[in-house]
Amino acid sequence: MPEGHSVHRIARQFARNFVGHAVRVSSPQGRFADGAALLNGRVMTGAIAVGKQMFLEFEGGLWLRVHLGIYGAWDFAGEISTDATIRSAGGRMGQTNHRGTVLGVDDLAGEDSVRSMGAPRRARLHMAESEKEDDSDFAFPPDPVGAVRVRLLTETACADLRGPTACEVLTVDEVSAVIARLGPDPLDDDSPAAEDRVVAAIRKKSAPIALLLMDQSVVSGIGNVYRAELLFRARLDPFTPGRALTEQQCRDLWRDWVYLLGVGVATGQMMTMDDLSSDDWVRAMASRDERHWVYHRAGEPCRVCGTPIRMQLLANRKLYWCPACQA
How confident is the model at residue 317 (pLDDT cuts 50, 70, 90)? Predict the structure, then answer.
């Protein structure tokens, strides 16, 4: 499932290439025909992400809310901005790119998601948990392929949505109500008040911290990968009840999430390891297997202590941790 950094990158793709343009909206699949008719022909005026949800604003006070869920993805085509750091064959934007060369370590301080996407050029780009660029020739606009729930089309850019968990037209009040139910997202609000809200939400609950970090009403954007990595980086037992954590432990988790989310948006990768050599950085950005401390490493030795990494299902999601480092 796409985590917070992917959704922010998708929102910035819309901000760069669709906002300010009149958009033809259709539903090739037919399941969103009524919603498409409401939005068709309106100018897109904004694009924001909050955690795993994206909201596209159109003139007249209407918004398109999209939650990609496990299977959703956006396919972009036309004169679009593609991430200059990704060089792989194929075409998507919404799930993590596992191939290609990326920014050097020193570039992170000066790059953000919008600037790291290259100048608009004729291309195809698939965005979900991973991102793939397709440089093959094609006619514009391309024919819809598969079950396209929504197509957004301008004179120069096209975006096709497939397989979302949620796709609906909302009013501004309805958008505000949805966002009010979500926990803070660092890229929307990294204020002391947002930090205090997360700390309070964690410390009043008896559920394990591994569950609380995935609770989007507590904090927005954290999924299975970031959950495992944040807890390892903090050396926290994932089964510790939220109310048993100290205030400082909660604040440290939030601040590390602020940092990791920024890295993810800048690079397009869920990079969670620090202090790598230049060669190790290149290897990590080219392969997810070299990018994480514990995620997806069940049975392999901990990179710190050598103890085999454990995995078990928690609320039907795979949880990874080191039983020694996180005791």
Answer: very high
Per DSSP, helices labelled H in the chain are 4-17, 33-39, 113-116, 172-180, 192-203, 209-212, 224-233, 247-267, 278-286
Q: Tokens representing 29?
A: 């699949």
Instruction: Give the separation between CA 148 and CA 235, rounded to whole angstroms.
Output: 43
Element holding 47 (H helix, E strand): strand 44-50
Active site (annotated) includes residue 205 = no
The pTM assigned to this predicted structure is: 0.81
Which CATH number belongs to the domain containing residue 92 in this structure?
3.20.190.10
92 pairs with which residues across the strands? Answer: 126, 132
52 carries an active-site annotation: yes
Residues 96 and 165 reside in one and the same domain? yes
- By percentage, how much of the chain surpasses pLDDT 70? 82
Of 12, 16, 52, 162, which one is the catalytic site residue? 52
Tracing tokens 């009840």 back to the chain, one arrives at: 241
Q: What is the pLDDT of residues 134-168, one digit of tens each?
A: 656 667 888 898 899 999 999 999 999 999 999 99
